[in-house]
Amino acid sequence: MIRALFAVFLVGCGGPSEYRGVLKNGMGGSPLGAVRIVAKASPIPPDLTCQVREATTAADGTFTLTDLCRKQNYVMSIPAPTLQMEGNTVVEAAEGEGSIEHRAWRSPDGHGVYRLQGESIASLPTFADVASDVAKDGTTVRYPEMKPTGKVITIGEGDFLVLAGKRTIQKMQLHPLVAQPNRVRLERDIIRDHVFIGVSFDAAGTPTPEKAVIDDSKVTEVLIRGEGMRFMAHDALPAGRYALLGDEDARVTILDFGTSQAAK
Questions:
Q1: Is the pTM of this model over 0.90?
Q2: Domains along the sequence of the chain with CATH
């Protein structure tokens, strides 16, 4: 699902007027209360008393911007650094209109890889350096230099993996992290009881690529300030352990989707 985020323009006409809206969570549609909304005049008007108007949403998400100056455009935004308003319509600020619905999305302040848990969004660290070697058929295979043996970052029920920024979305890929309990003879080394990134081996040591199967209906893409954001739900992939990295990356992030895959 792809959505586009733009500035919302409020047009006051005829005289001082008000704009009434309701703010909801873009991900689930629940009302967002206690959110400060700022409407800034654009361009800057001759009358400096018209420059800024503010409102705070009530528990049900409703808000009212009052005393908007006539014949003046206002750009509405949320100053919170990780909450961005969606707006794809031009509306007229006028007395007597019903509340207009707007959506806002929890989004990181910068490029990278993040986990969204409820109202909290945090950057995800890498797990280990990436090593590579050549299999018997000439295929280059990759694996983390350190094998994860316990809990790793989990995208659990209700959580989202967030890829922030066009470059991040284009570069980062998810691959199954495949356990290989037996010995694998590679060109430079013999690897025992380890994990490989997106590849499995048969008894003879011949590799087979393994792809991550992503349910596109569980992936939401939006544009925020002209940058792409990709939200991947906990069930966007079959439950399991995955490696997240780019083709040329020297470090890998290890993730469990759905539930922790750590041995119990």
A1: no
A2: 2-106 (2.60.40), 112-258 (no CATH)
